[in-house]
Amino acid sequence: MSAGILYLHGFASSPQSAKARFLGETMRARGYADRFHCPALSHVPHEAIAQAERIIAREAGPLTLVGSSLGGYYATWLAEKHGLRGVVVNPAVIAPISLAKYIGPQTNLYTGQRFELTEQHVAELRALEAPIVTAGRYLLLVETGDEVLDYRHAVARYQGNRQIVLDGGDHSFVHFPQYVAQILEFAGL
Predict the structure, then answer these.
(1) What is the pLDDT of residues 141-183, one digit of tens each?
(2) In 10 A of CB 54, how many CB atoms?
(3) Residue 6 forms beta bridges with which residues?
(4) What's the CATH class of domain 4-186?
(5) Are 95 and 117 contacting, i.e. CB atoms less than 8 angstroms apart?
(6) 172-189: pLDDT as tens digits
(7) pLDDT the model gives residue 1
(8) Would you tell me which of 68, 139, 172, 179 could form a disulfide with 89, CB atoms 3.0–4.6 Å apart?
(9) How large a percentage of the chain has pLDDT more than 90?
(10) 3-state class of 21 per DSSP?
(11) Beta strands in 24-144 (DSSP E)
(12) Closest CA to 65 of 156, 1, 140
């Protein structure tokens, strides 16, 4: 059974994000193209989870979830539900609170697609909060310069897990290319 990665992008993002592309290109270069999954997630939380769970269900080998921002929130819920490992990059640990201020019209940063973030979506996010974070299951990557999310929430939430906390940076996690080898190693690739 071959290990694989399911990458979950953040809010209003897409598989065209720099991190998703870089990870996918690295895996292709190493001969793992068939082990990399990166769906264009729906902006509707329960639909995004259903998309990820379809991929989890059809994979024969162990998957590691790699989630950025809101994708990290989803990755945590899915990892706990399915007993998977997760890499969370500048994760949105309090997504319902963080995103509530964005209720209203939104635009995908990569596709230009317009969509509406609603109160119902925020309620769906509340229902997806993992009640526990299992020690040893995650690799946390955060930068202290994240201008969108307070990295200290993630450090507290993922206590008992391997943590890489880097000074500076921003919400995009500028050091991502330097940590892809560690992500692949964590995933068993």
Answers:
(1) 999 999 999 999 999 999 999 999 999 999 999 999 999 999 9
(2) 12
(3) 37, 65
(4) alpha beta
(5) no
(6) 999 999 999 999 999 999
(7) 58
(8) 68
(9) 94
(10) helix
(11) 36-37, 63-68, 85-89, 104-107, 114-117, 138-143
(12) 140
Burial per residue of 1-39, b for 16 or more beta-carbon CB atoms within 10 angstroms, e otherwise: eebbbbbbbbbbbbbebebbeebbebbeeeebeebbbbb
Token pair 């990295």 is at which residue? 151
CA distance 110 to 164: 28
Count the Cβ atoms, other than its own, within 10 Å of residue 156. 11
User: Please, are residues 121 and 100 in contact by the beta-carbon 8 Å criterion?
Assistant: no
What residue ranges do the domains of the chain occupy? 4-186
Q: Supply 20's token pair.
A: 């998703």
Residue with tokens 């964590």: 186
pTM attached to this predicted model: 0.95
DSSP string, 61-95: S-EEEEEETHHHHHHHHHHHHHT-EEEEES--TTH
- Who contacts 127 (Cβ-Cβ below 8 Å, separation ≥6)? none
Q: How far apart are CA 146 and CA 152, in angstroms?
A: 10
